[in-house]
Design a protein that fits this description.
The chain has 477 residues and is an alpha+beta fold. It has helices spanning 13-22, 61-80, 96-111, 121-127, 149-162, 205-210, 281-291, 340-356, 382-391, 407-415, 423-430, 443-454; strands at residues 4-9, 29-32, 49-50, 84-85, 89-93, 117-120, 137-141, 145-147, 166-168, 175-179, 182-187, 190-199, 222-229, 239-242, 253-256, 262-265, 269-270, 303-311, 320-323, 330-334, 398-400, 405-406. The protein binds flavin-adenine dinucleotide.
């Protein structure tokens, strides 16, 4: 009998959400992830919008799962103590032709029971004075929100681990073999024997699929690049979209984030190397030129950072979520492009439905689907802060001045399940290095804390994955 019932390949939002939902059943589940941390792929770098589901075409799995998934987000985020900010999404039409397209989107929203309201140019300007002079009418999907997708993925895995799920980092799947009634997955971190395999490998899903069957679809990853504007600029209160089109997709948006900074992007360019996440002059120029259609006075000179993420697009226009022909109990969750974050809770339900056709799923009555709220000094009342500091003085020692993050918080985020193992891991979990100084002041202290907590030399502390050591040699002072 294989050791595991289910092995999930890939710890992005698809694998994370599935692992969390599976952890309510009596199953032996493992997630194997090629990187040194969870959610390092598309889930880390995207627009973070919980689209409500007006955009995907009729009759698609994308349309169905987007609507169902988005509805689950507020309660999931509450349960897992993750941020959900209901900003609303405005689709800004410029002229009669685009206004007609807004009517089509509204009709589609009616069919899907998605709430919206109309705003005239005057009404819209009263709330968003930076709308461009071309904007004539706005369709407001006011239940749209933003999350921090990385945080949700990590929280799902943390909760799943609490229910017995195993996570293996630095474990790239290199080979898959049919054994008896199941599968053996070989990685440099060991082999995993399992009854079911879920392929949730994002831009690498085709490579994994090719290990068990010939592929009828092909990967065509597309890059999206962004500017991040400083949190004191806040040029918009709502997410501002242009009217979507076949050529430009959802277009270039302005997105107020859960961290109160603002993203401007993305472009959409095909790329040869699915792991190339560098920004480009051309890509950022496209973003600058296209945001001007819907917005003016965008202070791009106040950008603190740029970044890019790669969409796991394929030749299939829809999500591919199915058991692979000729590979029993091997399930693809591929082509999970936008709205893959918004859809992920429903993608997990859909996969569980597929599993339940051939597997007996029994509830684990002891499963705890919540996650302990991490201690965040900046969010505490003065009394709570005093109590926390009295219990552990490390919470009084501020390491990150920009975001007011203490040593106690950093230590807690290393020690918890699915804890940080690198400087970037701490940055993503807590935010030191994400403020205005971008790590200039706090990073050396974070290196020291990591070395101490992991019991390694500072020379061994990684910025991110294998080989990304920050310090190269000792200083002879
Ligand atoms: C620019 C951009 C903007 C987007 N905006 C939005 C948005 O606003 N709203 C929305 O809903 N969606 C959005 N999306 C889409 C969303 O980001 C994706 O649909 C979602 O993140 C896909 O998650 P995933 O888990 O399937 O893939 P990923 O997050 O890419 O995760 C795949 C994981 O598999 C791992 N892996 C790969 N190969 C192997 C291997 N051999 N062995 C082990 N592990 C492996 C990777 O390291 C990675 O961690 C956007 C995407 C991009 C790029």
């Amino acid at each position: 009998m294989p050791k595991y019932d289910v092995v999930i390949i890939g710890a992005g939002i698809t694998g994370a959400m599935l692992s969390w939902k599976l952890s309510q059943y009596q199953l032996r589940t493992a997630i194997i992830e090629k990187e040194n941390d969870v959610a390092e792929g598309a889930t880390m770098a995207n627009s973070a919008v919980i689209h409500v589901g007006y955009d995907p075409e009729e009759g698609t799995l994308k349309g169905e799962l987007n609507v169902k998934g988005a509805l689950q987000y507020p309660s999931i985020c509450e349960k897992l103590h993750c941020a959900f900010r209901q900003t609303g999404a405005w689709i800004a039409a410029c002229g009669a032709e685009e206004e007609a397209h807004l009517d089509l989107l509204a009709a589609r929203a009616d069919k899907r029971n998605i709430p919206y309201r109309w705003r005239s140019r005057e009404e819209a300007l009263a709330e968003e004075p930076n709308l461009s002079d071309q904007v004539t009418r706005v369709l407001d999907f006011y239940t749209t929100g933003v999350i921090y997708p990385w945080e949700v993925a990590e929280a799902c895995i943390e909760s799943a681990i609490g229910n017995g799920t195993e996570l293996y980092l630095n474990a790239p799947c290199q080979h898959i073999e049919r054994i008896g009634g199941g599968w053996r997955i070989d990685t440099p971190a060991g082999s995993f024997e399992t009854a079911y395999v879920i392929n949730a490998a994002g831009v690498h899903a085709e490579d994994i699929h090719a290990m068990v069957a010939e592929s009828k679809w092909h990967s065509t990853p597309r890059k999206g690049e962004y500017y991040v504007l400083d949190d004191d600029t806040q040029p918009v209160k709502h997410i501002i979209f242009p009217v979507p089109s076949k050529e430009k997709g959802k277009g270039v948006l302005a997105i107020p984030t859960v961290h109160c900074d603002t993203l401007i992007g993305p472009n959409s360019d095909y790329l040869e190397d699915p792991d190339d996440v560098g920004t480009t002059d051309d890509g950022l120029a496209y973003v600058r030129n296209n945001i001007a259609k819907t917005l003016k006075n965008i202070p791009l000179n106040r950008s603190i950072r740029t970044f890019a993420g790669n969409r796991p697009t394929t030749t299939s226009p829809d999500f591919i979520i199915e058991e692979v022909e000729g590979a029993p109990h091997f399930i693809d969750a591929a082509s999970i492009e936008s709205p893959g974050i918004a859809s992920s809770p429903a993608i997990a339900d859909y996969i569980i439905e597929i599993l339940s056709r051939s597997m007996k799923l029994e509830r684990n009555e002891n499963a705890d689907m919540s996650r302990k709220k991490p201690p965040i000094i900046a969010e505490m009342t003065p009394e709570e802060r005093q109590a926390q500091i009295a219990a552990d003085p490390a919470f009084a020692k501020i390491i990150c001045r920009c975001n007011q993050i203490s040593e106690g918080e950093i230590v807690a985020c290393i020690r918890k399940p699915c804890g940080a193992r690198s400087v970037k891991g701490i940055r993503k979990r807590l935010g030191p290095g994400m403020g205005r100084c971008q790590g200039g002041f706090c990073e050396p202290k974070v290196v020291q804390i990591l070395a101490r907590e992991l019991g390694i030399s500072p020379l061994e502390v990684l910025y991110d994955g294998t080989g990304s050591n920050i310090l190269q040699s000792e200083n002879r002072i």
